[in-house]
Amino acid sequence: MPKASSRGGWDELSDWYDRKQGETGDLWHRTLIDPGLLRVVGNCRGKDVLDLGCGNGYLSRSLAAQHARVTAVDGSSRMIKNAKARDRGSGVRYLRSDAGDLKRLPDSEFDLVFANMSLMDMTDASAERAVGEVARVLRDGGKLVASICHPCFDVMSNSGWAAEKAFGGDALIYRKVRGYRKRFSEDVPWRMADGSKRYTISYHRPLSWYAGVLHSKGLAIIALEEPEPTNEFVEKEREGGDLDGPGLLEVPLHLVIEAIKL
Ligand SMILES: C[S@@+](CC[C@H](N)C(=O)[O-])C[C@H]1O[C@@H](n2cnc3c(N)ncnc32)[C@H](O)[C@@H]1O
């Protein structure tokens, strides 16, 4: 049985993840998740921004290039090492820290906190602490913008596409979901270049869990965005014979939550 821990797993995978994301993000980030995320945020010029669970920091550096003052935090020391190795004087400040314990960051330091595909990789307790820390380091009126796997439609192995071909026409694609209400963790497989698999852990929680935790920490949801795939994404996935491209045109697998500190 695979064995991963959220931080151990990402630490072990950080070199591979760094190559995968490069300086622009991989296909899924560049052509699906990030356009939705950035649309929500708008112009970051002059803003104090925290990138929580920054991975290799490609997003942090692109925000810094837009003249934001960026702090990039990740729990994996190797992710931070790789992020720093890529940096060519962007001005981003990198910190290795657990998202649930940001004691090196003062209260009310940020206008904006990004958590790009990181909250669902934290245990319930850790994600709850992280949201509490986000509320602490945000200024009044500051915003958290978090992308996660869509809790309603991506319930890890409890969900999948189903294609039904009828009357010789185009296949109808459905999203099957079960076990939505349960909170559970699962090893997520990532395929390496040599065909082997490595694992990280992700945590499924219903949407109401996120709304409740945000509310309990003094953050109010003001917008939800469900990123739509770009043509490039649909075409590339279709070429690979994958159902994600055509499926995502109808059912989103990611959710961007925008919440404001009251
Ligand atoms: C799916 S990766 C996303 C990375 C980056 N935001 C991106 O979109 O490419 C999840 C990241 O969250 C980090 N992470 C997971 N749990 C964490 C925690 N408790 N504290 C800080 N970072 C954490 C991992 O090390 C990993 O870099």
Q: In terms of topology, how is this protein built?
A:
Blueprint: H1 6-21, H2 27-41, E1 48-52, H3 58-65, E2 69-74, H4 77-86, E3 93-96, E4 110-116, H5 124-137, E5 138-149, E6 159-164, E7 172-177, E8 184-191, E9 197-204, H6 207-216, E10 219-225, H7 231-239, H8 244-248, E11 254-261
Parallel strand pairs: 1-2, 1-4, 2-3, 4-5
Antiparallel strand pairs: 5-11, 6-7, 8-9, 10-11
Helix pairs in contact: 1-4
The structure holds S-adenosylmethionine.
Strand content: 25-35%
Supply Rg.
Answer: 18 Å
In the CATH scheme, the class would be Alpha Beta
Order of helices and strands: HHEHEHEEHEEEEEHEHHE
What is the quaternary state of this protein? single chain
Structure, described:
The chain is an alpha/beta fold and 262 residues long. It is built from eight helices and eleven strands. Strand 2, helix 4 and strand 3 form a beta-alpha-beta unit. It is 33% helix and 29% strand. The longest helix has 16 residues. It has a single domain, classed as Rossmann fold (3-Layer(aba) Sandwich). The termini are far apart. The strands form three sheets. Strands 3-2-1-4-5-11-10 form a seven-stranded mixed sheet, sandwiched between helices. S-adenosylmethionine binds next to helix 1.
Give structural attributes.
alpha/beta; two-stranded antiparallel ribbon; disordered N terminus; binds S-adenosylmethionine; about 260 residues; about 35% helix; 7-stranded mixed β-sheet; globular; Rossmann fold
Short description:
The chain is α/β, with parallel strands linked by helices.
